[in-house]
């Protein structure tokens, strides 16, 4: 079994030592690091993992609790969040700017492993007919393919065609077993599962990868069931993109996108309302959510259509609107003018407007006031602008997201 050293944990946006920068070759891509003028030093600029030989660097999100001992469960949680967000929100991962980078084909692996859990290793066989005289005669093929001979008044078909079962599963089974075992052994911190009982043979998959991929492509044209075609396609993806060794990375360069997804999941599952003290949430997930939040878009400028308002998390009915924005910050600095503009420009959409910034914390969930307009600056209560800050525990939100 492959053994890894104890993981090294760091936090997105925090200082990272120069020896770790060199150890994990973080300067090989400019987005891995950024210079912080506040800290007067380089800081980590991604969330995820870098594996080099037997060492692993784990970069957790901002405000992830580091007051407790971090262990394997934290690695598994982060990996599950990154994978879950890609599956649920594939539209966020398209476009010219690549926010997520993985040098390992985990999507292909999980699809292969899902097939394995449901069906086991591939064991499909096919019936073929060959000319011969030993076996079960296939009269359909014999009549269709054989010559008709009249002998002493009897019609004889020659040659006879007999039916045999030819197993086609050995190569695909070996490919599946290798992909599953290799991944489970290489990523013991990330992926939990059981290796196939049947062991693949000693074929050198790495040095014969071109042959493996070409043979899989040929097999893809020979199988007909959708589940089998998908399996072969995933195996092609795995062997085409799996790195043989060296450095393996799984990095998200804009974790704010994931934070937005996690916040919306939490709002739709637990939010109950707002009063003068702030936002309120239930202890248990709603069976039927009373509020359904979505990203909104309002074209408010009749001259420049590109000047749109786009609140991250928005809910509207005839009486009330909630305008919430997820902010992936260590701390709030100064007034968030965008939230003031949201409420000012959209106040006529409902009788009552509630406004909040939602931020991560490594402590308990809590509410504070971000902005409350003085009475002398408005005449009617509906013109009052009050913005809350609601702090959600980062680890708790991540655990909720992957359940």
Structure description:
This protein is an alpha+beta fold and 403 residues long. The chain folds into 4 domains: 1-103 and 247-253, no CATH class; 114-124 and 168-242, no CATH class; 128-163, no CATH class; 256-402, no CATH class. Helix content is 31%, strand content 27%. The protein is built from 10 helices and 21 strands. It has helices at residues 18-23, 72-88, 106-119, 139-145, 169-186, 209-220, 226-241, 256-270, 337-346, 394-402, and strands at 8-11, 33-36, 41-44, 47-52, 55-60, 100-102, 125-131, 136-137, 147-151, 154-158, 161-167, 247-252, 271-275, 278-281, 298-299, 308-309, 313-316, 320-326, 352-361, 366-372, 386-393. The strands form 7 sheets. The protein has a 5-stranded mixed beta sheet with strand order 1-5-4-12-6, with helices on one face. Strands 17-18-19-21-20 form a 5-stranded mixed beta sheet. The protein has a 3-stranded antiparallel beta sheet with strand order 7-11-8. A hairpin with an 8-residue loop joins strand 15 (298-299) and strand 16 (308-309). The longest helix is centred in the middle third of the chain and has 18 residues, at 169-186.
